[in-house]
Amino acid sequence: MDPPAIREDPAAAPPAQGPAAAALPSFPMLNSPQRLGAPVGGAPRRRKVNLKPGHSQMDWMRLASSGEDLRGVSTLRPLTMDEVARHNKRTDCWIVIRDKVYNVTRYLDFHPGGRGELMRAAGKDGTKLFYDTHGWVNFETMLAKCLVGFVAR
Ligand code: HEM
């Protein structure tokens, strides 16, 4: 008696080859804003920069939980905007978001939008800039160890 014929599973998808492969979805989608420089029709173009090795957001969270002093002040206290304004340099950069004052000097090299973008808020209230750009970013968690005080109104 002949052995039973081996039949391919009709439900199994054929391997993606030829023109059909191009029709398959890819992840992230080719026009996804998750792709750097993606040719996006209609959606805003991403402006993320290439960060130095060892400067991913995971690396930042690791540094933030390392116990290293990122604030540069010994106590949290009320601060005037005049005092905040004095910290407007790359080597000494404070910004205000929702009345909280953060020392972002160490975060500058980790900012996915680049140092220059973050420096736009150096020594200033960056609340509007921040929310206009990325209201979904959880700054309070990310910068918790950089808090230096609160704006005195
Ligand atoms: C206030 C001044 C700031 C400006 C002008 C600014 C600007 C930008 C820009 C232009 C991008 C790229 C957006 C894109 O490609 O779609 C970006 C990304 C990002 N920024 Fe900022 N930023 C600011 C403050 C901050 C702060 C304080 C934090 C952290 C707590 C932060 C965290 C991030 C993160 C996590 C991303 C990546 C967002 C994503 O992948 O969706 N930024 N920023």
UniProtKB/TrEMBL annotation:
Record GO terms (molecular function): cytochrome-b5 reductase activity, acting on NAD(P)H; heme binding; metal ion binding
Keyword check for Ribosomal protein: no
Residues of the signal peptide: none
Gene3D superfamilies: Cytochrome b5-like heme/steroid binding domain
GO CC list: cytoplasm
Family designation: Belongs to the cytochrome b5 family.
Protein's name in the database: Cytochrome b5 heme-binding domain-containing protein
Origin species: Coemansia javaensis
